[in-house]
Amino acid sequence: MPTSPERRRATPADWWAGARPHTWANAIAPVIAGTGAAAFHGGASWWRALLALGVAWALIVGVNYANDYSDGIRGTDDDRSGPLRLTGSGLAAPSAVKRAAFLAFGAAGVLGVALSLASSWWLILVGAACIAGAWFYTGGSHPYGYMGLGEVAVFLFFGLVAVLGTEYTQAGEISAVGLACAGGVGTMSAAVNLANNLRDIPSDAASGKITLAVRLGDARTRVLFCALVAAPFVLSLLLGFTATWWALLGLLALPLAAVGARPVRAGATGAGLIPVLGLTGRAMLAWAAATFLACVLG
């Protein structure tokens, strides 16, 4: 009796891809922008910035593995046009992907505790809320990511919390400049998430995953994406007139953002939208870096 071919198991390259490096800009940009806001008030600290970066990076790796696991066991990744998923493809056992997620969350927790004890102990509670938010995005019996709240959560955790938390742990305060930086990073980070959900509207709607993109529909999702991508540059103008004219350096990232938004504006679908995530992420990094430089110079 012939034997069935052995199924290929996940390689280190597959696990690396499963961590979704193209989304890591969502973790790096808030720390850059938050450190810039702290520097504007003379309170930047390189080692606290590195700790904050470690927390943010571990969180985004954890949430990516958690989404892979939760979507995979629910079957919502069975028919998708995006990058390969470890659980949905069968390359890795669901338990292994879940374990990877919680290892990353554990690393974020350890680094977060260290950062909190170096600044304010109550930030430990904020960190615990971030980890819970990362898991319940697609995990648990009532994931809020399936209720159209994903972009709101991304704006909150990778915008407001990450940027203002970074600023507070270094400068000991939250400022109007920090709020503007948080708004800029948060809106563009939410745009990255929205582009991902725009691509998956057909498969998500069929599987019952009701994202914001599914609720809005294709046309209105594209309009919202463009508005979210434009928001940081409006904030650059605002900062330029109210804080330091150096903030206008943020406008240098506008061409990159425009290139990233082109497939969305052109009506691309499916795999044609995959480059939008990476390009928008790079535009967010460029905006955060330019705003950091502006805060230092200002």
From TrEMBL:
Pathway: Quinol/quinone metabolism; menaquinone biosynthesis; menaquinol from 1,4-dihydroxy-2-naphthoate: step 1/2. Signal peptide: none annotated. Its EC number is 2.5.1.74. It catalyses: an all-trans-polyprenyl diphosphate + 1,4-dihydroxy-2-naphthoate + H(+) = a 2-demethylmenaquinol + CO2 + diphosphate. CDD domains: PT_UbiA_UBIAD1. One of its GO terms (molecular function) is 1,4-dihydroxy-2-naphthoate polyprenyltransferase activity. It is an enzyme of class 2 (transferase). It is a multi-pass membrane protein. Pfam families: UbiA. InterPro entries: MenA, UbiA_prenyltransferase, UbiA_sf, UBIAD1. It comes from the Bacteria. It is found in: Cell membrane; Membrane. Keywords: Cell membrane, Membrane, Menaquinone biosynthesis, Transferase, Transmembrane, Transmembrane helix. The chain crosses the membrane at residues 21-40, 46-66, 96-115, 144-164, 223-253, 273-297. Its main location: membrane. NCBIfam families: menA, PRK06080.1-3. Conversion of 1,4-dihydroxy-2-naphthoate (DHNA) to demethylmenaquinone (DMK). HAMAP family: MenA_1. PANTHER family: 1,4-DIHYDROXY-2-NAPHTHOATE OCTAPRENYLTRANSFERASE, UBIA PRENYLTRANSFERASE DOMAIN-CONTAINING PROTEIN 1. Belongs to the MenA family. Type 1 subfamily. This is 1,4-dihydroxy-2-naphthoate octaprenyltransferase. The gene is menA.
